[in-house]
Amino acid sequence: MREFDYIIIGGGCAGLSLAYELDLHKKLEDKTLAIIEPRDEYKKDKTWSFWKVINHNFDDCVKKSWKNFSINSPKGTKHLQCDNYPYQSIDSELFYKKTITKLKENKNVSFFKNIKDINQNNSFIFNSVPSLENNKNNLWQHFCGVEIKTKENIFDDSIINLMDFDCEQKESVHFFYTLPFQKNRALIETTWLSKMNDSSLRDYDNQIKNYIEQNLKIKNYEIVYKEKGAIPLFYPANIKEKNKINIGTAGGMTRLSTGYTFLNIQEHSKYIRMNIENIQNVKNFEIEKKYHLLDKIFLKVLEKHPEKMPDIFFKMFNNSPNTIIKFLSNKSNLFEDLSIIFKMPKWIFIKALLKL
Ligand SMILES: Cc1cc2nc3c(=O)[nH]c(=O)nc-3n(C[C@H](O)[C@H](O)[C@H](O)COP(=O)(O)OP(=O)(O)OC[C@H]3O[C@@H](n4cnc5c(N)ncnc54)[C@H](O)[C@@H]3O)c2cc1C
């Protein structure tokens, strides 16, 4: 059986980002890499969006970039600008095409469907398949989105709606998210922050239909793409092993309060690439510890007081857009953290902190 210097388990976002980063920086010229990915074909399955707070390798896969966003609740609408950190959406189809085309040109990179097809005893393994069993009692961000095409030009494609809380809440946190790619095309997602034990929350098709037809008052439209998913708002088991590092969601790259993962994956890939020659001995890369604590408190409040969350998010957005964006993208300084914390309702957060 063939042996490789490195094995990446899972050729999804984290696996391909890492392989691409290693290839781009010529770390695979005299090292071999096997990528294990069971899917038969790659097609568009996700839209990765984030505020661009750092540079990354995939600007040419950006479907659209915006400099304005809004938050909506039954109490009103807030409009904010993000000139310094545009909000970008990456089309996974372009990402898969770009990374796989480049990797297939490298004779040291091989693709396999099953880890059993190779000998893994002497390799260093990067694993992106999380172990998520028995986690029904944890919080998830679960969602479904459709990209619709309308007959008329009805969307303002210069602004995204990041959160619209003016919808059914059902003892959970629920909002809609609208990304207008063109004046007649938009991705509209229904998003829940909840445990996975209430199946009625997953009646996504009806929720989306009602929102499009009743809230947005759109009658003539066609669904051209659909995506569905669940992001764990807890860290999967991530034990450091001598010859193995977990990456992606499995490696704790999801920011628990937001679900944002894509840019953390890019930073992790860069960290691994910079330390690849000494990878067995380097410290585990993780999202800064202060965000672990702040997100834990935030999720405790969310679990206990879901009905207060629209108001809490609305208050958070009373800060300057740069402060909020940096905070939500784990790039804030202490002064910015405090500015966010002081806008929060004190007692329920203190009580949540005491119960940790
Ligand atoms: C629909 C969706 C939309 C998202 N949108 C955003 C967003 O807008 N912004 C953001 O920052 N984050 C977003 N996320 C969160 C996160 O960025 C993505 O989940 C991202 O794909 C995580 O990368 P990953 O490599 O950890 O997992 P994946 O991309 O899921 O890759 C894991 C790979 O492992 C493969 N695999 C599965 N089982 C095995 C096995 N036994 N052996 C080998 N391979 C296996 C899978 O086929 C897959 O290709 C989204 C998540 C989802 C599900």
Concise account of the structure shown:
The chain is of the alpha/beta class. It has 9 helices and 15 strands. A hairpin with an 8-residue loop joins strand 11 and strand 12.
Any overview of this molecule?
With 356 residues, this protein is of the alpha/beta class. The protein is built from 9 helices and 15 strands. Helix 1 links the parallel strand 1 and strand 2. The N and C termini lie far apart (49 Å). Bound molecules: flavin-adenine dinucleotide (FAD). The site of flavin-adenine dinucleotide has 29 residues, from helix 1, strand 3, strand 14 and helix 4.
Keywords:
356 residues, alpha/beta, seven-stranded mixed sheet, 9 helices
